[in-house]
Amino acid sequence: MVLETDNSLILFDFIRLPLKFYSAVGIKIFQWDADDIMTTKEKCIFLLLGINFIGCFLAKSLFCVFGEFVDTMQATQWILYFMFAMNGCCKTISVAIGRKKLYTVLKDIEGIFPATLKERQEFRLAHNYGYIMRHAKIMSIQHCSIAIMFIAFPLVQSTIEYLTSADSEFVTRTPYIMVYPFDATAGIGYVVGYFSQFLGGFTVSCYFVGSDMLLMCTIYLVIMQYDYICYRIENFKSRNYEEDMKELKIVLERHNLLNIVAETVNEVFSISILLNYMISILIIVMISIQITKGSEFGLDMIKFVGFFTSASTQVYYICMFGNLLMDYSSRVSESLIGQEWYWTDVRYQRMLVLAIARSQRPSHLTAFKFFTISMESYGNLMTTAYQFFTLLKAQMEQ
């Protein structure tokens, strides 16, 4: 069964899931092949959800002008929802701007994707596919569960209060804090407002998950290639000078291509990663304030605890795959040093020294060149968020 899976997988399978999230909101990031065209249905979905998202964004933004916050906790909620929408929007815009570069990167990787069954087994293709899909599904299921909870929570809360309270009055609530040019607290206005916010929440969730998952899957495709290079180096057996040099040339050309590919991926996502890092700090701080000061124990508490977990997990995964990229790319130099070079021709050994020198610098993701994305940066993010949280909490208590 594993062999059949190894033999059937193609590169597109690794990016199919994130592209489905984009497709759900009518976005076609790039045309993968001649048959992959944007359908009329996708165009209609894109137009409908795009107009609705812009309307929701304006309704949320204009609340500062025409609305009135009940208290500080409602203001922190508004900031939380606004920054989350901004984050998802920035991620998708970043991918859209760099879509041509990203398409070129994926096609370059497809050009060196394992073709024979032997190569696929050496790549451990089925194992790697299972690994990235497992993490992608964990992130998407977790995020979508929280999104559904936020959308459904007002109705559930109002229904429970209606059924358990003495007075038979249904209190209308909406998922997010917005202002409308019509009465959105009763009748058809309430239905329209609620449904519009439902579509807006669905749209920004697809933007958010699709972008992060596409980054994860693309980086993991590069990681797989670095791992395969290390496998070839570590299993190298000297034959003769010509054959040895031919193998070294293949390894170095592939390694050089992967370095270029990794750098291009970093160019596409670096601004998005920086904005994501800064906005995530603010989101985590606002969620923490809601958990500790604004939410009573119950459904409201569960909602924000889940949101906190989802926001932390999303940043964790980006940092984790950035860390994996550094680890696997740095292994190439170690593998070259550890191969059986002592059985080879002296001329090969001289070339190997140059190859080792060229492979010293690992590939990495950066937040627009400000800092490298790794598990250390994740720890720094959580520490910074905690410091801002304690400061803001102290200010609110005074």
TrEMBL record:
It is a multi-pass membrane protein. One of its GO terms (biological process) is signal transduction. One of its GO terms (molecular function) is odorant binding. It comes from the Eukaryota. The chain crosses the membrane at residues 45-66, 78-97, 138-156, 202-223, 268-292, 304-326. The keyword Nucleus does not apply. Keywords: Cell membrane, Membrane, Olfaction, Receptor, Sensory transduction, Transducer, Transmembrane, Transmembrane helix. GO terms for cellular component: plasma membrane. InterPro entries: 7tm6_olfct_rcpt (IPR004117). It is found in: Cell membrane. Signal peptide: none annotated. Its main location: membrane. Interacts with Orco. Complexes exist early in the endomembrane system in olfactory sensory neurons (OSNs), coupling these complexes to the conserved ciliary trafficking pathway. Belongs to the insect chemoreceptor superfamily. Heteromeric odorant receptor channel (TC 1.A.69) family. This is Odorant receptor.
